[in-house]
Fold:
Amino acid sequence: MHRHFRFALLTAAIASTFIPAFAQALTGITAEEAFDAVQLQEDPITGADAKVALVDVRTRAEYEWVGTPAKVKQIVLKDTTALPIVPDLGKVKLVNRTGFLEYSLLQYTVDGRHKWTQISKVAKVDTLPIAINIPFTLWDEAAAKTIPNPDFNAKIAALASSGNVDVLIVFCRSGSRSTTCGTQIEKVGDFDAVYEIDDPTPGSKGGVGGFEGSPYSEVYNGYQGFPGRLTGVQAVPSVSWKDTGLPIKIDMSKFVPPVGFKYPWE
Structure:
């Protein structure tokens, strides 16, 4: 399939998946809280030890082509004499528009010291996905619209009964689908807690979280989902994965898990 045609389908799929949220909303947490919860395997609110899973409920097209949350295995520098950088917890953040990557090394975690590396000095960043894709909706090419995923309930139920997940964190593009699917999750899955990546303010309308955050009607900020865009000038700043500058993995259709690879909750 030609790339421009694939992109057209993807755009149509995304545009049609903005579903009004149900009145019953999940507890919102920031993308950074979600990352820490998965890597530390602890409840993002209570801090208690827990088996935490991160579930991407976007369409398969979004998951593969737009990108999905990841951790950094290593940062390889252009200086071939330098050893690869292995960040603590696999956590690396792109710092606004400064051109720097921010991370901690294991020996610095106690006193909270951080390190910075210029992107211009980086040859490549090896990333590994930390979210699994269970689409809430599917793209029906014949009808040119999204339809409910008939397997969604069964896959969530299987995750709940696996014994590997106590706490579930879900996310979509900006927060609408994740809030909506929360009603379904509560019906079919027995979890200790379920969270979504979105505005953590109680009573919030949401829509500023997920993978890319809100476009804010393309007013002032314009584009959607990149670190350093001025979401702080909005009434509700974005708490999305991309706005936070956390690692991503793109084109999961070509991802070949390395030997011994497993998700944190397996």
Summary: The chain has two domains: 3-69+129-254, 71-127. The longest strand covers residues 68-77. Residues 32 and 244 are 7 Å apart (CA to CA).
